[in-house]
Amino acid sequence: MSEINVGIVGATGYTGTELVRLLHRHHKVNIEVVTSESNTGQKFSSIFPSYTDIFEKELVSIKDLKNYKLDLIFLALPHKVSMEFIKNHGTFGAKIIDLSADFRLKSSAEYEQWYHTPHIAKNELKKVVYGLPEFFRSKIRNAKIVANPGCYPTSTILALGPLLKKDLIKSKGIVVDSKSGVSGAGAKANSKTHFPEVFGNFNAYAIGSHRHTPEIQSTLKEFSGKKTEVLFTPHLLPIDRGILTTTYSTPNKVLDSELLREELAHFYDGEKFVRVVDTPPSIKNVRGSNYCDLFVHYDERTHKVITVSVIDNLVKGASGQAVQNMNIMFNFLESTGLKIPPLFP
Amino acid sequence: MSEINVGIVGATGYTGTELVRLLHRHHKVNIEVVTSESNTGQKFSSIFPSYTDIFEKELVSIKDLKNYKLDLIFLALPHKVSMEFIKNHGTFGAKIIDLSADFRLKSSAEYEQWYHTPHIAKNELKKVVYGLPEFFRSKIRNAKIVANPGCYPTSTILALGPLLKKDLIKSKGIVVDSKSGVSGAGAKANSKTHFPEVFGNFNAYAIGSHRHTPEIQSTLKEFSGKKTEVLFTPHLLPIDRGILTTTYSTPNKVLDSELLREELAHFYDGEKFVRVVDTPPSIKNVRGSNYCDLFVHYDERTHKVITVSVIDNLVKGASGQAVQNMNIMFNFLESTGLKIPPLFP
Amino acid sequence: MSEINVGIVGATGYTGTELVRLLHRHHKVNIEVVTSESNTGQKFSSIFPSYTDIFEKELVSIKDLKNYKLDLIFLALPHKVSMEFIKNHGTFGAKIIDLSADFRLKSSAEYEQWYHTPHIAKNELKKVVYGLPEFFRSKIRNAKIVANPGCYPTSTILALGPLLKKDLIKSKGIVVDSKSGVSGAGAKANSKTHFPEVFGNFNAYAIGSHRHTPEIQSTLKEFSGKKTEVLFTPHLLPIDRGILTTTYSTPNKVLDSELLREELAHFYDGEKFVRVVDTPPSIKNVRGSNYCDLFVHYDERTHKVITVSVIDNLVKGASGQAVQNMNIMFNFLESTGLKIPPLFP
Amino acid sequence: MSEINVGIVGATGYTGTELVRLLHRHHKVNIEVVTSESNTGQKFSSIFPSYTDIFEKELVSIKDLKNYKLDLIFLALPHKVSMEFIKNHGTFGAKIIDLSADFRLKSSAEYEQWYHTPHIAKNELKKVVYGLPEFFRSKIRNAKIVANPGCYPTSTILALGPLLKKDLIKSKGIVVDSKSGVSGAGAKANSKTHFPEVFGNFNAYAIGSHRHTPEIQSTLKEFSGKKTEVLFTPHLLPIDRGILTTTYSTPNKVLDSELLREELAHFYDGEKFVRVVDTPPSIKNVRGSNYCDLFVHYDERTHKVITVSVIDNLVKGASGQAVQNMNIMFNFLESTGLKIPPLFP
Lengths: 345, 345, 345, 345
Hints:
Number of domains of chain A: 2
Number of strands of chain A: 14
CATH superfamily of the largest domain in chain A: Dihydrodipicolinate Reductase, domain 2
Largest sheet of chain A: 7 strands, parallel
CATH architecture of the largest domain in chain A: 2-Layer Sandwich
Strand order of the largest sheet of chain A: 3-2-1-4-5-7-6
Oligomer: homotetramer
Radius of gyration of chain A: 20 Å
Largest interface: A-B, 46 and 45 residues
Mean pLDDT of chain A: 97
Number of helices of chain A: 11
CATH topology of the largest domain in chain A: Dihydrodipicolinate Reductase, domain 2
Distance between the termini of chain A: 38 Å
CATH class of the largest domain in chain A: Alpha Beta
């Protein structure tokens, strides 16, 4: 089979750059066009000198996208801008993988409640598939538009989904305590990401109000069939890449850690990118890779189930998962271009 | 009133060094002697060049302590070594502030269960006061031996204590998710604290089994009168100093954030070192200082109470609190030597 | 003697904040007014929560400065803005310590060449004293306006000055390789200080063109009497605070390290804030303090003199030195308010 | 052509681990055996959980190497241990790439002078080729034993070699100021690499005495034909990976930056792993990759040539270069297995 032509819209943000890293050598893919409104006319490698000699394509404006024949478009855009793109430009006859939050919630009402802005592409919303391969692989295969999951939700849902589905834990009162590196906040500088403020520091933010909350809840419900209620608290880690999520839930019966691990191992048997591990995982165990490492513990004393999961927020939490979705949508081997070992140390 | 003579036993560990930082200019204190078994005969400043011209006293062996007339001895020793010191040497007629874990648990049985070693100073244990000034100030005033609280417990108990005492939250099912900088692991290098392993990394450890768990539970019980059950999960932050603790508990009735904040503010009214704040605090807000910054949120949607507290683990979490205890024990103004503003940025 | 009244103009930048840290408990100083144009009307502690309960004064506009009776004004402003302040407002009858670069170069022509902007306060420039106490103490004592030295120049000049003055090294061909933490770039966020870009990274910048070059050269000339030529290369360290400067120069004769160290020790004998050390110093040896630690080595094999010096860029490299200058100008003990031990670890 | 069988001796050090990262998917290579004396019998992935599902081979002892038929052995051992290996075991009929320092200096006398230990494999030393492909490719092609260059030397020699060879700079009085991440110090923890000591810190070390000095000098001499004298000063950067080297030298005539850049670009024309760049490079531009990014500047004012070069110390500075050498020795395409883009951000 020959290569497909893809476009990366918003190629100079962090998820866009990461798509270039993963796709420029993917042997089934030709990166036909990369766009940036703020850097139109410049070479990608002049913005990112690390790509000198590697990927030097010139950045074009969205306005010129119509000149390219594309099989797939990655939208690496902020929320709101993504649905405006779809609204204004359609899909150019291509399949779409959207890395923004605009199409992750099935309910536009819920979207409007958490994102405080009207949803302007409700028709498209109905056709969208949520792109978590380990849960929705068969739907992704035939999707026209895939909503690529958020970083926090990926790390959370992979941990809790199988436990809920198997009725091992209660779907209420779940606590999700997440810690993310700063690249999750995007490539645009602001006072909260100013180096001297973040360095040596750590804080919680958006307590009780983070927009990934409904994404976690609705996906867990869709997958497990149980209305799920999650209290989600994100924290900002003073590192560049990586998320670690610790969850606390109440088991439906007396369990043990070994049994829980086996349940997870069984569920993820055959999966290339989820590793059920028997010691608490570290963020650097997955740095730069598409892995999610997943640990579970049953605390006998307090009768709670704890999970700890780690991903690289820019890979399994964004662009790597997008490539995995692409591989599924185009019938490539699912791990093509993603067999990258973690960078340790 | 004239100065008191103090000795710092184990002066070259991190809590010992921090005691020197806080005490060398305390105008009511004369650091009469500093000990180190591994560096006997060397100047303190030759081990810590940052103290050149500041504190250059020669380190002596514990064996020579008997030659000094001391009003107070700080034991900045590992657990087990502290009770051996008391067992073998007594107190030299001085008051004792012990920074180890050996005298923090009232029950020697509980100590033996969590620390996997016999308690060898049970008689002394009975006389010990737990040195959390905001809770036990009057007992500390007359104590001969003070057990200085652990770093994780300090950050946790200050947050949960008043809520439990006031019957605002349930004493069961409390989740404590803590994140600590690496100095909490002490000054001794090992593979888990090797820079390339920790840098850019993050992980949970001692899940379900950390020894600060019984200290948190028993202190909360002693203070609030309620048998308290806590699930405590520590994580290792890639920073040098600081702890942030996030707790999740269930309220006894419908509440609101404002009311909770007022309850805490009222409880800590007049306290010099606990600041009840109205935005989630950052670790660097207290770096190098004796403050605990404390935030509370009531999550209406999930009916949970969240607290976020930050301390510098070496100051309010160890040596600063020890100095605060000393000030109380010797009737000095409680903030003497501790009015150090946080180092930000 | 009673207190003096000081104003801090530009109190919410990093050097302004650091002045608050050092002055709010200085027993000879009353911080009468703090200004900020962008945060007028807000409490200092609402911008910097670390100052809650410590320093809560309301920020006012420069326009209101005339309502205050001040003995001393600290200008913690960017270059250009400082001389505009002096031009537009005069000095309000107060003495001035200017932390910007506007008055550091005696020659306005040189200023205009390196800063690419006209100097608009040439009259005032003539009266200014360069505020490096160890070199120009007696002039500082009687100065009306003190130009507080730059951070890189402080670390460089303290190392090279005595060697040049004593004719130990040649004044041509000196290489200065400096490495600074990010707070040196100020409190304003930009893409170059965005956390994910700086974290784990390191780079040289402004090669051959950094504006501290003429400051280093002209000060060394003024002090040593020798026209000095320096090649200065700054680098950006992924830390919050601190500068380490390595210099390479050619000795005028065969020397040895011991002799050089003695020369420096002799020169700095009696100085409170320069410590001549016998092992290469680390940045954290001076973190948060007003010390400059200084090491010298004679390399026999290549016949070169190497110096390594460290300072905290915000203290001895800015606000600490400003307070030292104030102490001199008002006949306070020179170390008042500055006896702060380094924060290690 | 079929695969070659390789062994990695000392696979659990950082350079050994990095060889696994680069070779486990190299399609011309079969990693036949990995050794570790301290972890014999354990799976590689149990020591490095990041390799779970990726590389799980069991670690064997050197004593068992004789049971394997190998085309190539990588010695990822400390200096001294490497030559003992060769002395005691020979080469098992395989080619050798030695990543230690034992065979980098042609002169055993010089080795003994700088490493303070007798050279015990002088016969083998004579046959060794220094494995810097860009300089010695044709010799490497036919070598039996390749001494893989040191990390600091690689970053330095690639910058200075062409300038010396072309007679553009003087070979005396060269200053090399290098800054390295902590993984350069190896995987073994010690007090100097304890996280709280390194974090937020920076220092120079081994001033005038670092063992990479003779390697730099003798290689530059071998390549350029000029006796070269270098003053080399290493510094410890608080990051995990990466070296940045700044050099200062005196040109033989008036030059300009553009011309120098062209000279370097011409010299490295066709090279896959050296990129001559026109803005000062950052360490993260090459993180995880085999690139060396190289910048040159002529400073008119002081008549000096400055170079800035960056590498990942574990890749181009160690294991990546070793793989590059292997590719040359076995007539594989030189970039096989090394086309890994840098991990940015």
